[in-house]
Design brief:
alpha/beta, Rossmann fold, seven-stranded mixed sheet, 8 helices, binds S-adenosylmethionine
């Protein structure tokens, strides 16, 4: 099956990449690379999940961060959403025991249509995903809607102080990063931007 193209707020032309819309064999190969190359340790520290939290990852891909959340936090539930059925199948295999126990819940969804109830999560996270959204503001409004008051949103995209070759190739220009920052400030409080090792991370809190 041919990889579908996506139109995003961040790029001037439609993007056709198995990393943006992973489908079929190229998508599964991209998912395999994501599982091997992405290191969730710094992001987990920043997300600061507390015991009993409900956590949602939008654009979870093959489930590397879902697994880290399952194994290294005391979250009550961990929900992973992605528009790619191939990625959800990989994430399900990668987290088989936690899916079977019901602690990890996987399903179809996009940043602007999560299908989740209002104010149902304490932490919402999106990694290497925000530049693929068709509409930045619509995605942020939806993630704000599903966060509880006081809840934290973490948005991360390729970049950082020592970016990998992949991160360098995919990094966003400063004006696009500024656009994310300003869009977050319109909706959230305590917006901060940090350069981690291989990723640029924004954190923001839903007002209480
Ligand atoms: C580069 S992968 C990153 C996957 C995972 N977060 C990681 O870091 O390993 C991007 C993911 O975003 C998903 N995606 C594409 N468009 C999306 C959208 N509008 N909303 C949410 N996820 C989307 C893709 O299906 C893909 O799994």
């Amino acid at each position: 099956m041919r990889t579908p193209s996506i139109s995003s707020w961040a790029f001037d032309a439609p993007v056709r990449s198995p990393f943006a819309m992973p489908t079929g064999l190229p998508g599964r190969l991209a998912g395999w690379l994501m599982l091997r190359l992405n290191d969730p340790r710094e992001l987990l520290g920043l997300l600061d999940v507390r015991e009993g939290d409900h956590v949602c990852e939008v654009g979870c891909g093959p489930g590397a961060l879902i697994r880290a959340l399952d194994q290294q936090t005391r979250a009550q539930t961990i929900r992973g959403l992605d528009p790619s059925a191939d990625m959800l199948a990989m994430a399900s295999r990668h987290n088989a025991a936690a899916v079977a126990s019901g602690r990890v819940l996987l399903g179809l969804g996009t940043a602007d249509r999560t299908g989740q109830a209002d104010q149902s999560f304490d932490r919402v996270v999106s990694v290497n995903n925000v530049a693929m959204w068709p509409d930045l503001d619509a995605g942020l409004r939806e993630l704000h809607r599903i966060l509880r008051p006081g809840g934290v949103l973490l948005i991360a995209w390729h970049g950082g102080t020592a970016p990998s070759a992949i991160a360098r190739r995919n990094s966003l220009p400063p004006r696009k990063l500024d656009r994310i920052h300003h869009a977050l400030e319109r909706l959230f409080s305590l917006v901060e931007r940090r350069e981690l090792t291989k990723i640029t991370a924004f954190t923001a809190q839903r007002r209480s």
